[in-house]
Automatic annotation (TrEMBL):
Stored InterPro entries: FSCA_dom_sf (IPR034904), MIP18-like (IPR002744), Mrp-like_CS (IPR000808), Mrp/NBP35_ATP-bd (IPR019591), NUBPL-like (IPR044304), P-loop_NTPase (IPR027417), YlxH/NBP35 (IPR033756)
Binding of ATP, residues: 108-115
Lineage: Bacteria, Pseudomonadati, Pseudomonadota, Alphaproteobacteria, Sphingomonadales
Keywords (A to Z) from UniProt: ATP-binding, Hydrolase, Iron, Iron-sulfur, Metal-binding, Nucleotide-binding
Family: In the C-terminal section; belongs to the Mrp/NBP35 ATP-binding proteins family.
Species assigned in the record: Sphingosinicella microcystinivorans
Function according to Swiss-Prot or TrEMBL: Binds and transfers iron-sulfur (Fe-S) clusters to target apoproteins. Can hydrolyze ATP.
A molecular-function term among this protein's GO annotations: ATP binding
Quaternary data: Homodimer.
GO biological process, one term: iron-sulfur cluster assembly
Name under which the protein is recorded: Iron-sulfur cluster carrier protein
Ranges for domain MIP18 family-like: 7-73
């Protein structure tokens, strides 16, 4: 029997006090992993009092550790109503004294290249000698493992998540907890509770900047995350298309609503230079994000061209920001702008 099946069998011996079934059949357990003698899973504690949730967590911990070959266990608790026993108060940002700036990368619309920008921004900042972390909070479509070329599962040491050290930075992804072929279907409070635990229970060490790749859109999940994570600021990625820009403006408004400074906008998939004839075309338009930023009184942080090389480098797990070419330079220029915007924000708000 495979290690993860042994874990499941051990968990099936635990009764669920609410449904009377075992906790696996009751649907309380997901994302079971076993790697390097460390077991991990997500435990839903809905309907349990804080005391009963703690008791269940302890029983799950003991059950996992009873399996031969398991040396440690990491349990991430979630609750749909947001009443997980761990984690901060819903409206109080988690204290993260080792992290100087947390920067969220958001977008109003999916598919505009938010994750590509987040990963390349993080790599560019690391290439400037900064200590950088990258947290993939895009719970429904985590893409950082692919973009960074590391698909491994979560590893734990002394109950703390160990980030993958890759391309000069430390990366943690919800994708590391889940089967890459299966989308995680979690409701908002469960997702934000799991995310907060990944944020606060990862051994980041001292960081200058933590880049957070948010899920696309402006729903409750993003709003809650923007409230719970002590963000220094947000950058908004958009294509130049009108439709994407309408949604990008909603994202700007959402951050404004919760008092998170918007550091600026980035236009992705801007000009396309034909690699064969050199002809310049504007497949999704051009300049729209800069105009929108201006209209909203926000800084414009720069443009990223639409390039096959960017897509290929992303698919290969070697971000284009590692290269000394025009696309790599575009990301490095944006990273400089982001750092400058962060300094201004700190000055303006006297450090949030
Ligand atoms: N500038 C670019 N040039 C070429 N391809 C790009 C560029 N930016 C992103 N892509 C490609 O577009 C696709 C979508 O990008 P990405 O996953 O980063 O978007 P996203 O906004 O994070 O999407 P979602 O959040 O909906 O998952 C990927 O295949 C990526 O490689």
């Amino acid at each position: 029997m495979a290690g993860e099946d042994l874990l499941r069998t051990a968990l099936e011996r635990l009764a669920d006090p609410v449904s009377g079934k075992d906790i696996v059949s009751a649907g309380r357990v997901s994302g079971i992993v076993l790697r390097s003698a460390q077991a991990g899973l997500v435990l839903a504690v809905d309907g349990l009092s804080p005391h009963d949730a703690k008791t269940m967590e302890a029983r799950v911990d003991a059950a996992l550790r009873s399996v031969p070959g398991v040396e440690g266990a990491r349990i991430i608790t979630t609750a749909e109503r947001g009443d997980a026993p761990q984690g901060p108060h819903p409206t109080a940002p988690a204290p993260l004294p080792e992290i100087r700036h947390i920067v969220a990368v958001g977008s109003g619309k999916g598919g505009v290249g938010k994750s590509t920008v987040a990963a390349n921004l993080a790599v560019s900042l690391a290439s400037q000698g900064l200590k950088v972390g990258l947290l993939d909070a895009d719970i429904y479509g985590p893409s950082v493992p692919m973009l960074m070329g590391r698909q491994e599962r979560l590893t734990l040491r002394e109950k703390l998540i160990q980030p993958a050290e890759v391309h000069g930075l430390k990366a943690v992804s919800m994708g590391a907890m889940t089967d890459p072929d299966r989308a995680v279907v979690w409701r908002g409070p469960m997702a934000s509770s799991a995310l907060m635990q990944m944020l606060t229970q990862t051994q980041w060490g001292p960081l200058d900047v933590l880049v957070v790749d948010l899920p696309p859109g402006t729903g409750d999940i993003q709003l809650t995350m923007a409230q719970k994570v002590p963000l220094a600021g947000a950058v908004i990625v958009s294509t130049p298309q009108d439709l994407a820009l309408i949604d990008a403006k909603k994202a700007v408004a959402m951050f404004g609503k919760v008092g998170v400074p918007v550091l600026g906008m980035i236009e992705n998939m801007s000009t396309f230079h034909c690699p064969n004839c050199g002809h310049e075309s504007h497949i999704f338009g051009h300049g729209g994000a800069e105009q929108a930023a201006k209209a909203m009184g926000l800084p414009f942080l720069g443009v990223i061209p639409l390039e096959m090389a960017i897509r290929e480098a992303s698919d290969a797990g070697t971000p284009v920001a590692l290269r000394d070419d025009p696309a790599g330079n575009a990301f490095r220029r944006i990273a400089v702008q982001v750092m400058a915007a962060l300094k201004e924000t700190r000055h303006a708000t006297d450090v949030r």
